[in-house]
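Translate sequence into C-alpha cells.
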Amino acid sequence: MPSRAIREFPPAVALAAALSMASPGLATAQPVTLRASSWAPPSHPLSQAQARWCEDVGRVTSDRVRCNLLSKPVSAPPGTFDAVRDGLADLSFSVHGYTPGRYPTTHLAELPFSGGSAEIASAAYQRVFARHLAVLNEHRGLKVVTVFTHGPGQILSARRPVASLADLNGLRLRVDGGSVIEIGKAIGATLVMKPASESIELLASGAIDGAFSPAEQVSSLRLDKAIRYRTSVPGGLYNTSFAFVMNQSAWDRIPKNDQAAIERVSGEYAARLFGRAWDHADRRGVALMQAAGVSTIVPGKAFVDELRALVAPLERKWIVDARAKGLANPEQVLREFRAEVARLQ
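Result follows.
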C-alpha cells in the first residue's frame, strides 16, 4: 500500500514522495528557458531593454523562467515576427513598418506630434493598445509582451538648416521604413530608402544630405561627425512602432503562477522599460551633437501648422484603415492616444 511504503522511508523522502503523488508536476517541474533573439548590437537600447526585461522575469519568477540570448539573430528585422511565431526563437522585438500593410492600426503611434519622449509615447501607446487594439489580433499567433516606440524622429542635415518645409527642397534624406515614408512624401521631401547602418558612408559620399532620425542614431552611428544641423520638431516629426513578442507555445508552457508574475513586468511596465532605454540613448545623441557644434533649430508655429495640414490626410487614412480592420471608433481612439500623451507629459 502507498501509505506503508511512505512510512518505511526516511521522513524527508516520504514527504517528497507524498508531495509528488499529491501534485505530480511539483516534483518534476523544470525551469522554463526562453530563447531570446536580437538583431541589434548588444549596446543598442533595444538589446539592453530586452536584457533588463529578462532579468526582471528571472527576479519575479525566482528564476523559474529564464532567458538565453541566442548567439546570432534568427532573422533579419523584417522576418522577426514570423520567426518568433514559427518557433525559431521564443522572444524578440521588431518594427511593424518593416512589413507594410500588415499591421495598419499600429500606425497610430507613428503619426507626427506623438510626444517628445519615448517613455511617454510608449506608455500611452501600450495603454491604448491594451484597451482597443489588442482585440483586433493583428499579431495572430504571438503573445504580445508590449508595444512601444522609439524617441521622436527629427530632421538631421549635413548641408543646410531646415527652418521651414520649403528648406527641404533639394535635400536627399535617408529613411528606412514605416509611416515616415508617407510623412516624408506628404511634406515634399526627397527620400532615399537605405538602412540606417549605411548612413555615415552615404553622407560621406554625398549620396544623401541627411536623414529623418531619432537622436539615438547620432550616438549609435556616430553621425555627430557628419551632421551640421538638427531640426527638432515639437512633439516629433514621427515615431516608429515596435512590438516585443513571445512565441505563443513558449508562453503556454510557463506555469500559470509564473505567467501572472510575468504579466506584472509586461504591458506598460515593459513599454516604459524600452522607452527609458531609448530616451537615454536620445539624450546621449543630443549631447554628442552639442559637443560637436551641431546647430539645433526649433521651428515655430508656421512650420508646425503647415506640417499639421500636410499630414492630416495620413490621419484620415489611419482612421479609414483602422475602421476596416474592425475598430469601431478610430477617431476617439486617436484622440484618446493623444490625451494619454498629454496627460503623461
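Note: DSSP finds 14 helices and eleven strands in the chain.
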